[in-house]
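Case study 2.
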Amino acid sequence: MPLPSGVSLTVLVDTGSARFRVDLKRRQSAYAVLRIISEEVPENQANEEEETEPDYFDLSEDVDKGGWITALLDHRPAPAKDVFVFSVRVGAAVAEVPSFGGGDQSETIAMEIEALTGQSTEESQWTWKRLSAPDGFLKAWGIAAPFSQLIAWREVIGGRRGCRLMGVGHPAGLPTGAEQQIELWEGLAMHVQNARGKKNIRGWSGVGAERVALADPEVQTSLSKYGLLAVTDRNMPEWSDLEGIEWIRLDSADGQQRWAEGLATVMDFQARRPGLIPWLSIPKPEMSTRALVTRTVAVTAAVLVLTIAYHLFLLGRKDSLEEQVASLRTPIDEHRERQEEIRKLNQELRTLRSRPEKAVFNIEAHEDRLQSLLSNLADAAGGNILLRSIKPEGFDVHVSGVATTPQGAAAYAMELDFFGGASGWRASLVEREALLVRPDGGPWTFLIELTPSPVRTPVQPDSGSAKKVIAGGSGQ
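Prediction:
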C-alpha cells in the first residue's frame, strides 16, 4: 500500500468511552494534527466499562481483540504506515520510592508499578520515565501491558498491508498548556503542575482514585488559587459542581482536538516517536516461512555472484602482485641500503620501548584482564544464552545476545559480575527487550555493560534471594 499523501503518523486512541484516530503531519520542524476520525463506542460496552470496577487480582486472560482498531483503520483517507496505540487497557501509575544512592533501582520501580497497576512485570512489557522528586526519593511515571495484549494489537495492525504497530502507551499526561491540570481516568488520577518551566506530576491509583485526589490538600489549594483544567473521558459527579474547573471531555470533538494537539507537541520530530511520556516499543514480528525462504534464496544468489566476482578479482590481483614482486628485485647495493634503514629503525624502536615502560605495563595488564573476561563470558554462558557480539567501547566492553528464559539475562549478568570481580570487571544489565515470539513474550535480547574496576574478592550471593527480571525498555 503506498504511503498516503500528507500522513506521517497515525495514533489510535481508546479512552474507555471514546475511540478515535489522530493523523499527524510533519510540517517544518514539528508535527501538526491533520485530521481526527471518531468511532462510536457501543452504548452497552461504554456503560459496562464505567460501572465495572477493575479487579486487580483477576489473572484470567482478558485481551482486546482490536475490532475497534480495524474499524478506525478502514476509514478513508488511509492511515500512515507507522501506527501507535494509546489505550486505557495499558496500566499506568506514578510510583514514588526511597532512593538508595546511585545504584540501579529498576527492580524497585518494577515492583511498585506491578503493585499499583496489577500488571505482572514477568508477564508484561513495562517502562518508566523519571520525574522530579524530593531529596531522598525516586519518582517514576510507569506503564505496563501484557505480552498477550501487545501481540494481539500487533497482529491486527500488521494484518493491514503496509501498516506496522510501532509503540503503545496510555493516553494520560499529555500537555494542554494549563498551569494546573487534573486527569481523571478509570483507576487513575494525576495532578500535573507546570510552573517556571518545570513539570511536577503526582498520581493516585486504584478504585476511587478520583475521590482520593479531590481530598488531597495540594489539589484543593491549586483549585482555589489557580483553577484546574480537568481531562476526563466520563462523568465525574464528585467534581461536577466545583467552581474553577475547565473540562476537557474526550468523548467530545473539542476535547479530542485539544488532546490531539497535546500529542503533536510531544512527538519527536527527528525520531518520529513520542518524547516526554513513557511508551512501549514494539519489535517487528518474525517473518513468515514463505518470506524467509524467498529471502534466503535471494541472499544465496547474491553471495554466489559476489563469490564469482571476488574470484575474478583475485586472479587479476595475483597477476598484478607477481609483476610488483619482479620489480622489487633490486641490485645488492639497494638491498644493503634497505638493511641499514631497517637497522636504524630497529634501534629507534628499542629506544621508544625503553621510555614508556610504565605505560607498556598498564597495557599488558589490561590485555590480561581482557583474556580473563573472555574466559568468564564462556564459563558463565549456559544453555539458555546465545551471544551475538562482544564490542570494546574504550576500556568498557558491551556484550549483546539472546536469552531463552525470562531470568536468563539477569542471571548471566550476575554470574559475570561475580566471577569478574577477581580480574577487575563489573557487569550491569542495561537493556532487555522481549521479542514477543512465544506466548510468554520470549525470547529476550539483552545488552550487558562491563566496566573496569578495582580487583575485589568474590562474595557468593545469598542463594535465597531472587532477582526479578526487568523487561521493556529503552528506558531505557
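Residues 22 and 36 are 5 Å apart (CA to CA).
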